[in-house]
Amino acid sequence: MFYWFLKWVAIGPLLRIIFRPVVEGEEHVPEDGPAIMASNHLSYADWLFLPLTLSRRVTFVAKAEYFTSPGIKGWFQKKFFSGAGQVPIDRGSASAAEGALSSARRILEGGDLFGIYPEGTRSHDGRLYRGRTGVARLALETKAPVIPVAVVGTDVVAPPGKKFGTLTRPVVRFGKPLDFSRYFGLENDRYILRAITDEIMYEIMRLSGQEYVDMYAGRAKEAATKAAKEAKEAAKRRAEALARDPAQQAEDVVVERAAAAEQAPPADAGAADAEQKKAS
Fold first, then answer.
1. What does 35-76 look like in DSSP terms, one character per residue?
2. Are residues 50 and 164 in the same domain?
3. In sequence order, what are the residues at sequence separation of 6 or more whose Cβ sits closer than 8 angstroms to the Cβ of residue 54?
4. Are residues 156 and 95 in the same domain?
5. pLDDT by residue (tens digit) across 67-110?
């Protein structure tokens, strides 16, 4: 009940008026029965705009902290996310993946729509990263069709690391359902799971127009953070070295000026020739 109150009364109408999201391919979403909505993940706002464009309820998994925080704030947080169609998952536990799949199976067995982000986390730079095979296993175990989804523009509305960005019209594109019935019974074959996942990610890439990177998003994010930290530390060390050695700083200025002089355009050769002829 709270889900529909948020969607049709409290939040949904406001989002529609302000952002006016564009929907494409909604005819590919079945009117009833289970389906897996496999989407790219650009922003925390994705889970708002994807369900907003459909008349059916879409359930996602959310981190357990939203459901276990203490106090009044924690109580409201739990009520909000539960009512908004989220189910808790402890992402820090060893059984987190199995817990998410178990929740998803229960939702799909009830004939509902389940939303999943195969990348496993938000893209930190707007590119599409390698999908994890849980979505493939889920499709084979539940025999539910997979509908590729591309959400575009939410990283402008709510960029990574920020609560608010720039006003734009997000686009939600639904692709044709993907049928993997030819692989039923092979959910324990890791090569089949990888092939299915790659096919799903290709369709998402085609719908979103994102650049694809054959690396897990979490690892790419860690590598980018590490590189940025190393660059910052190197710049700091350089600044400290210059502060300790004024002579080195002066030498750098001389070198820079010499390099600039070498790159400077030559004097007016025509005027020089004229002076030389006049003197002779």
1. EEEEE----TTHHHHHHHT-SS-EEEEEETHHHH--HHHHHH
2. yes
3. 26, 29, 113
4. yes
5. 666 777 666 666 666 666 677 665 555 565 677 788 889 999 99
Q: What value does the mean pLDDT take over residues 133-144?
A: 95
d(CA 140, CA 138): 6
The whole-angstrom separation of Cα 280 and Cα 277 is: 5
Structurally, how many domains does the chain consist of? 2
Residue 175, number of CB atoms within 10 A of its CB: 19
Report angle CA 73, 74, 75 to the nearest 5 degrees.
90
Q: Are residues 161 and 23 in the same domain?
A: yes
Q: Which two tokens stand for residue 46?
A: 């994705």
Domain that holds residue 129: 2-214
- Rounded Cα distance between 257 and 250, Å, is 11
What's this model's pTM, rounded to 2 decimal places?
0.78
Split at pLDDT 50, 70, 90, the class of 3 is confident
